Amino acid sequence: VTLAGTRITETAPARNSIDDRYTVQYTLTTTGDYVLSIIMDTVTSPQYRWHIEGSPFSLTIVSSAAVPEETEATGQGLVSTTAGEEASFVIQTRDEYGNIETDLPVVGIGDRVVATAQHKQVPTEQVAVSITRIANETVRYDATYVATYSGLYDVTILLNSFVVGSGPIEVEVRPAGTDAASCVFDGPGVAGSTAGTPGIVQLQAKDQFGNSVPDEANDFFLRMFCHSGRCREEYDDDTPVAITDTDPERCAQAGDPCTDRFKSFAELDREDYAGFYEGQYYVEVAAVYVLRVDLGGLFVGTPSSVLVTINPTGFDHDKSIAQGHGLIEGK
After folding, report:
1. What's the pTM value of the predicted model, to 2 decimals?
2. What are the distances in angstroms from CA 193 to CA 186, 189, 190, 288?
3. Cis before residue 175, ω within 30 degrees of 0?
4. Distance (Å, rounded) from C-alpha 190 to C-alpha 245?
5. How far apart are CA 153 and CA 122, in angstroms?
6. In terms of Cα–Cα distance, which of 207, 221, 213 is closest to 263?
7. pLDDT tens digit sequence for 80-111
8. Which run of H or E residues covers position 253?
9. Most buried residue, 103, 178, 241, 324, by most Cβ within 10 Å?
10. Distance of CA 315 to CAs 192, 228, 320, Å?
11. Residues ≥6 apart with Cβ < 8 Å to 289
């Protein structure tokens, strides 16, 4: 007896003397199509090397039941993804010999494949994974999920309640792009300042899901517009107020505040809080201003502006004036 050109019996099969039948046993561990030949091997027989009736036979070897130890999962969705975007991966079920599962009811129609994505630091952030069985002679499972909370997740895949592979797979979910409306700005300068004293404004860049965005490619700029008071003498509603100090000595002493661009905490040599920035304004005219933060032509934050009051400094006799009819020489 030969199978795919390889002899699988070294001696004649056992003969059953009752019904004159021979029993042949063989074991294959690789799926595929085979040719089974049964031939006469008696040298003295006139039918030596003749096939028996029907030989050679065509055989198809299918997989045995899928097992979690050999089943594998691959795809970018098991490496990294971006918040709000669909991530995907493929689960390829295999039997104990590593064969891809065959699409036959007797093999694996009852298999149950499930997966979960669990945030490693936030227990409440568990993402459902959608799984679709794809059967076309062989079987695989296509998986997709969408995570909106950035950070590291453990993706666990189960085959019939047993963990696939060596255990959970760590996946990084990156923040989405900066969303102007979701950014937050605050700091002491938002509450106001005094004329000639810099006002500090801090900004946190966020995506639409509230995740901090650590590496915003564009620059944030501080903008102020006149709302009411003495600034009306020089500015209308739509003209940005000059808010940078022009004195080089003061700029150097204060660590270069002579810019309206926000700087990241890393640029300021502070503890690196990802997505945090700081800017400042400097105005010498006491008035009420509209403060905004500009990102590529969009004003960030919700609301996108606040009113800040710049108070006058203390009494300066050199700049104070006295007016009135009582100061005119009378008769």
Report:
1. 0.79
2. 13, 6, 8, 10
3. no
4. 18
5. 9
6. 221
7. 999 999 999 999 999 999 999 998 876 666 78
8. helix 248-253
9. 178
10. 19, 22, 8
11. 224, 225, 226, 227, 231, 241, 283, 307, 308, 309, 310
